[in-house]
Amino acid sequence: MACVLQIGAGGVGGVVAHKMAMNRVESGGVFSRIILASRTLSKCQAIADSIRAKGFGEIEIDEVDADSVESVVSLIEKYRPKLVVNVALPYQDLAIMEACLRTKTHYLDTANYEHPDNAHFEYKEQWAYDTRYKEAGIFALLGSGFDPGVTNVFCAYAQKHYFDEIYSIDILDCNAGDHGYAFATNFNPEINLREVSSKARYWVKGNSTLGEICGSLHSSHCGAHSSAPHSPNATQPTNFSQDSRISSDFAQKLCDSSVANSVSLQSNLALNPDLSEDTIYRKFEREEKHFALESNTQDLQNVPYFNGQWRDIAPLALMKEWDYLGVGVKNSYLLYHEELESLIRNIKGLRKIRFFMTFGESYLTHMKCLENVGLLRIDEVAHKGGKIVPIEVLKTLLPDPASLAPRTKGQTHIGCYIKGLKDGKERVIYIYNICTHEECYAEVGAQGVSYTTGVPAMIGAKLICEGKWGINCEKTANNANNADMPKGGESQGLDSNQGSGVWNMEQNDPDPFMAELNKQGLPYVVVEFDTNGSHKVLEDGRKK
Predict the structure, then answer these.
(1) What is the pLDDT of residues 79-119, one digit of tens each?
(2) Which of 21, 104, 373, 387 could bond 56 through an S-S bridge, CB–CB 3.0 to 4.6 Å?
(3) How many angstroms from the chain centroid is the CA of residue 451?
(4) Alpha-carbon distance 366 to 281, whole Å?
(5) Is the CB of residue 342 less than 8 Å from the CB of residue 502?
(6) CATH numbers and ranges of domains, the chain
């Protein structure tokens, strides 16, 4: 039995609260008391009313200012929960983590910290809490959504059961739903548009000149071998010998300093022969603008990270056609996503990792127009004697993502396309989930994007409260060189005090989490490809 305090009552928050209510003690679950808090009490009340109307019982509601450490501390002290589930804004992560530290309360979130004045997100400021959380004997679970979250667990599960070494990972995020509007975002518009309009980034192994990688990639599958639609369901053949030749060519290109040190689009195309240049988003691109763009969208660099190199690319500059099983071929754009930062440190043998998200022509055209007129700016501008932030104005103008739930039709498809070695032999594994928007709405009144984030948050909370993750639970130690960690994060990934500290999803045993996905509405499928491009299903959680 466990008392849980949830902070955040948006679209994702509604899913988390509903799913926790469905897993309360009376129903054979673990949650004995559920408190939902937000700045806007009416949002909490609406969620509580929905939970009651669906027959899932009662939850308690309260108000909190999640920007204020003192306000969150007061709320925690009022209810004394076992765990705080943070599904508020990413800007508020540090305040809530600090409040949990002061009250010695376990912590969980779904997205890493993002500074409100800088469209840049990374885990380091949260990893810096690791030593203090260890000293306090409390557990923090970072990124328990879908991506990050389930995608991390997919990779850990593949590492545990299907590979001795993983060489490359492509994380694929496809929303094939249609809400019927000309333009809207499926989650918080400000967060969504800041993320998508930021520069893209992928990682390859090597030092700043990538010289270390010479001769080490000849047997790997980094990069796909065809510019034709690439297919997790193997409608395009996967030719291992051809893939290996490209890996050899890839290694040679990395050893060419003119490629390794260049930030040009051509150099990155040379390292990613399966990608092509975008022709939609940049159709209305102009060299000059009437305002200064935020540096995170333009300041392209090759940055050393964890014995490898981050390679920056202009926003939405490179794309690929992926054939998504059950959905079809979609334009998928290379982005940066936060789970890359931790997976690089925790997946054995990794040499390349990328993240892709699908966008249609209408979305990209609207977004470029908004950028060109300055509505994606995150800085203050003068207006009628006052100050406004353009992207905040845009957020006000766009539909509330929660209002899209009854309108959205279609599916989401998110998975991890993984290449590596098992028993000395090359193999390709694809682990994915398909979620239907209409089914999500029927169950909890949400669309699929909120559902796929909220269900994993509840699962993470459930495992912590059941004692399957967290204190006194075995971790997957990364034995990493943490010399690049911030002060306080030097021992992140090392279990020095009975499982306490700050941990990412893939550092926990993936098996109980994967089992819960099948039980809680997000069943997974594992597919393996052979050298002829055909595939077989190894696991299918949809079959009950």
Answers:
(1) 999 999 999 999 999 999 999 999 999 999 999 988 776 66
(2) 21
(3) 14
(4) 9
(5) no
(6) 2-147+448-520 (3.40.50.720), 166-440 (3.30.360.10)
